[in-house]
């Protein structure tokens, strides 16, 4: 059943069996953990809909569903090919797989961008935060955005085919075809699928950190919320760049600078990093969210511990909370 597409791989590419064994193992871990973590996020939101159903978590659910589909449908196909040491499936499966994974990848980037923008509004413009209805609209727009980036190859702008690793399919980064205008399509993907989201995400989180620091200066004392959120924001940006920047740089180098790699690791590692985002997205965006932390603590607690924590809290709260404290508390709960 092994496909003849293997003949289309780059000549001279060193493809040792050990690299494919490593790729199969990594893809297996990505599939298992990606499926488990994202399923846990989905079930947590569904079970705690009364407290977790808010705009940011609606977008998080949208991302978790997409990442779950990648783990369940996409990873097994690539892992099978890694075990075989060559693309195992037919050309039609290659094209469909490439379109599916491209759509899901850009949907994930779109969701991350929307979440960054929502948090930007939450902290910097607390009176203009998004409603759940707005989140539904943005959720639909994320898929429109992803499809607008992934469908052009079906209309002869760009091309899908084997990746350099020879076990996965995506946009044919190395093709220089005047008929499909692959160069302009890849430029289009880089600008709107990577560069614009990076600018929005980085700009949003920079504004969040700056706003929280200004609040700290006005109050005149440090705040643990600002420190924790600063660290979390830095982790989010680093994780995003680690996942997608190597892949984007390699794609641009192949298309515009005619770079060719002589070893399979150079082709495999950027692919595996991009695919691994389905694992740590839910960890970063859910486990660092205080509401999810409390929900999971409640879910995995013993009955005795749960009863102690559900005792009535007799400490009264100050109803005259300042605007500054409101912003900080809302930020803590949502982030």
TrEMBL record:
Topological type in the membrane = Multi-pass membrane protein
Please state every residue range assigned to the domain named G-protein coupled receptors family 1 profile. Answer: 37-285
**Pfam assignment, any one:** 7tm_1
Q: GO annotations under biological process?
A: visual perception
What PROSITE patterns does its record include? G_PROTEIN_RECEP_F1_1 (PS00237), G_PROTEIN_RECEP_F1_2 (PS50262)
GO cellular component terms listed in the entry, alphabetical order: membrane
* Main subcellular localisation: membrane
Q: Look up the signal peptide feature and give its range.
A: none
Q: Which UniProt keywords apply?
A: G-protein coupled receptor, Glycoprotein, Membrane, Receptor, Sensory transduction, Transducer, Transmembrane, Transmembrane helix, Vision
Q: Where in the cell is it found?
A: Membrane
From the UniProt record, which GO molecular function terms apply?
G protein-coupled receptor activity
**Ranges that cross the membrane:** 20-46, 58-89, 95-114, 135-155, 185-208, 233-258
Q: Which InterPro entries match?
A: GPCR_opsins, GPCR_Rhodpsn, GPCR_Rhodpsn_7TM
Q: Family per UniProt?
A: Belongs to the G-protein coupled receptor 1 family.
Return the protein name.
Answer: Green-sensitive opsin
């Amino acid at each position: 059943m092994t496909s003849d597409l293997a003949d289309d791989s780059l000549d001279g590419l060193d493809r040792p069996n050990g690299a494919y064994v490593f790729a199969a193992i990594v893809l297996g871990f990505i599939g298992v953990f990606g499926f488990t973590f994202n399923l846990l996020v989905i079930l947590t939101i569904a079970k705690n809909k009364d407290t977790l159903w808010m705009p940011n978590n609606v977008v998080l659910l949208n991302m978790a569903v997409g990442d779950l589909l990648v783990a369940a449908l996409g990873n097994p196909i690539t892992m099978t090919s890694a075990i075989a040491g060559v693309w195992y499936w037919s050309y039609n499966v290659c094209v469909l797989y490439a379109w599916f994974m491209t759509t899901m990848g850009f949907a994930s980037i779109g969701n991350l961008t929307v979440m960054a923008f929502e948090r930007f509004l939450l902290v910097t413009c607390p009176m203009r935060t998004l409603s759940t209805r707005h989140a539904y609209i943005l959720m639909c727009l994320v898929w429109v955005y992803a499809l607008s980036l992934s469908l052009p190859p079906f209309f002869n702008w760009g091309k899908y085919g084997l990746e350099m690793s020879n076990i996965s399919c995506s946009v044919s980064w190395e093709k220089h075809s005047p008929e499909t205008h692959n160069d302009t399509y890849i430029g289009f993907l880089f600008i709107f699928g990577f560069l614009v989201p990076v600018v929005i995400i980085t700009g949003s989180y920079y504004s969040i950190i700056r706003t929280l620091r200004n609040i700290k200066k006005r109050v005149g004392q440090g705040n643990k919320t600002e420190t924790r959120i600063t660290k979390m924001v830095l982790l989010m940006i680093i994780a995003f760049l680690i996942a997608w920047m190597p892949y984007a740089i390699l794609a641009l180098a192949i298309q515009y600078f005619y770079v060719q790699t002589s070893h399979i690791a150079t082709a495999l590692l950027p692919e595996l990093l991009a695919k691994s985002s389905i694992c740590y997205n839910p960890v970063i965006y859910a486990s660092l969210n205080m509401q999810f932390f409390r929900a999971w603590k409640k879910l995995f607690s013993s009955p005795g511990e749960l009863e102690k924590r559900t005792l009535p809290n007799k400490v009264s709260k100050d109803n005259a909370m300042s605007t500054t404290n409101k912003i900080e508390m809302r930020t803590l709960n949502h982030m």
